[in-house]
Write a structure and sequence with these properties.
- Helix content is 29%, strand content 24%.
- By secondary structure, the protein is α+β, with helices and mostly antiparallel strands.
- The protein has a six-stranded mixed sheet with strand order 1-2-3-4-5-6, with helices on both faces.
- A hairpin with an 8-residue loop joins strand 4 and strand 5.
- Helix 1 crosses helix 2.
- The protein is globular and about 60 Å long.
Length: 167
Amino acid sequence: MQAAEKTGSTLNIRKARPDDCNAIVAIDKQTSGVAKKQYWQGMLDLCSDRRDTEFFLVAEREHKVIGFIMGEIRAWEFGSPSCGWVSAIGVARNKLLEGVGSGLLDALCEYFRLAGVPSVRTMIARQNHELLSFFRSYGMMAGPFLQLELELGGPPAGRKPVRGLSR
């Protein structure tokens, strides 16, 4: 897939390959502050094994990876129909506002459409205003499900630990 860029050069979007790992790690580190090579290598391996439900794409310009997106098709529990999920997106800091993220999301959504899923979802931290603005500019808004969380520092008040569990 190719898309015209605001800079006048061409953006190529393709499936990620194992040799893209270092570039993906570097882009992710710009946002997260942590180099997670083992994690990203595992994600590349996972997506190559499940080609029909897992998608890992990269955006490149002049044969240099400048962004990535990862997504999957899932039918979650609790009555959720099958849909596409965006699980990760990253764009090199010096390439923001050049349409790279939109090109990646467009390409991933096309894979989802071709697979017959009716919608796409994602989950982001409330305080990540930059990413929230990006997804909202794409037309995404709050969905029908509410994420709940429990810190696992110990058993909830009034509950006893589960017996028989060991490492």
